[in-house]
């Protein structure tokens, strides 16, 4: 669904069909391959078609983590596309089960002959050699959480509240960032805390970006015997509490699009929450660089995979420097929110961005998000 995409170019979502093989197709295509297939070949076949921002961001991830980043983001894109590319929810669930089983096989050291699996297997072997098995088990925990969350949100039901949208973003976009940190490996309460705020912003932004795509009727899936029907009905994933507060009706959005009464007000309220998370992350980063406290507790500290050993100011500074490329996920989210504001919070009129590569370079150079 729309909240499942991104941060990707939503405008290119329709063109994603066929850019990556389905799990079944990939398995068939790979029958003659061996587990010793050159990883360089696999890197090419697992390229990030359709996720322009991940394609840009991967160059800022440490080289040792790049295979993991490529594999995980490509898998995320595959999972995000499922509701759009299969003809019914039962098939989508079967695909989700396929990927869950595949992940378990990969972490058990027995990857299927499928590009994402081979690349992820290589990354896990490298990670175990560098850092031991505990980092790999962290990666598995986060990846299964991502798959489970994607599965729960396959049917494009609206979020009950803005808080439930945040929970979704934590379990998808923030979790993708936790995986990148685990692949380095970098375990730090402050880096995870920053990733949580940035990931929440990214997930909220992805929902807003998806509005024009999901509110339009889907195109019929073409099968061997012709059209097999639409994959989904139009959907609007804005939180119900926000919609009720401003009086926007989903039927009006489906019928009138950007002219629906209350749409821009509701988008403004949701966008403000995303912007608040980015502001919080920037303030935290500023305080941590100055050797000060961040000013508020990390809500997930103490949960599974969020247990930390204490480190001093010097350790925190080193962690920020080493993991800064992960924090650059904030830049595309901020870039979209700025363009949304210029469009008066009408998601149908947001213009494409051409400044993003420059903004990423500037953020890295100045060490500011």
TrEMBL record:
<dbReference type="Pfam" id="PF00494">
    <property type="entry name" value="SQS_PSY"/>
</dbReference>
<dbReference type="InterPro" id="IPR008949">
    <property type="entry name" value="Isoprenoid_synthase_dom_sf"/>
</dbReference>
<keyword id="KW-0472">Membrane</keyword>
<keyword id="KW-0999">Mitochondrion inner membrane</keyword>
<keyword id="KW-0496">Mitochondrion</keyword>
<feature type="region of interest" description="Disordered">
    <location>
        <begin position="19"/>
        <end position="44"/>
    </location>
</feature>
<dbReference type="GO" id="GO:0005743">
    <property type="term" value="C:mitochondrial inner membrane"/>
</dbReference>
<dbReference type="GO" id="GO:0032981">
    <property type="term" value="P:mitochondrial respiratory chain complex I assembly"/>
</dbReference>
<dbReference type="InterPro" id="IPR002060">
    <property type="entry name" value="Squ/phyt_synthse"/>
</dbReference>
<keyword id="KW-0809">Transit peptide</keyword>
<feature type="compositionally biased region" description="Polar residues">
    <location>
        <begin position="28"/>
        <end position="44"/>
    </location>
</feature>
<comment type="similarity">
    <text>Belongs to the NDUFAF6 family.</text>
</comment>
<protein>
    <submittedName>
        <fullName>Squalene/phytoene synthase</fullName>
    </submittedName>
</protein>
